[in-house]
Amino acid sequence: MKSIVWKIHLKSSPERVFDLLSTASGREKFWAEKAPEKDGIIQFYFPNGESYESQIVESNANNEFQLDYFNSIVTFSLEPSKNNGTDLTLTNEGVVEDEFLEVHSGWVSVLMNLKAAADFQIDLRNHDPNKTWDQKYADN
Prior knowledge:
Strand order of the largest sheet: 1-7-6-5-4-3-2
Distance between the termini: 26 Å
């Protein structure tokens, strides 16, 4: 098992970033086509037809959001920075070795989409089920 760590600076406040991570409407702006939550379980629906039931492990308002994501633990840690911005650290622990390269690069896509949604209110994804990560589209 391997771990992934990515950091990104966002101009948006920790409150704004946490809202995007921790609400269905927020996650649907950058991460999944649909992502409703019920009783601490997020049901992710992706453009390629795949879905995943994810357990929220920890949720500390404006500081940390952690979940079981594809049988690994993903933690988003938020730290206030200059000018009301946010330094976000994503840590993904327990990544299966033969999936490491795909998961590692996949998080870059998610984080860039998060930055676009948080800082510029733009959705970079194409939302086309025929043009997904499976077909090598980065804008899935």
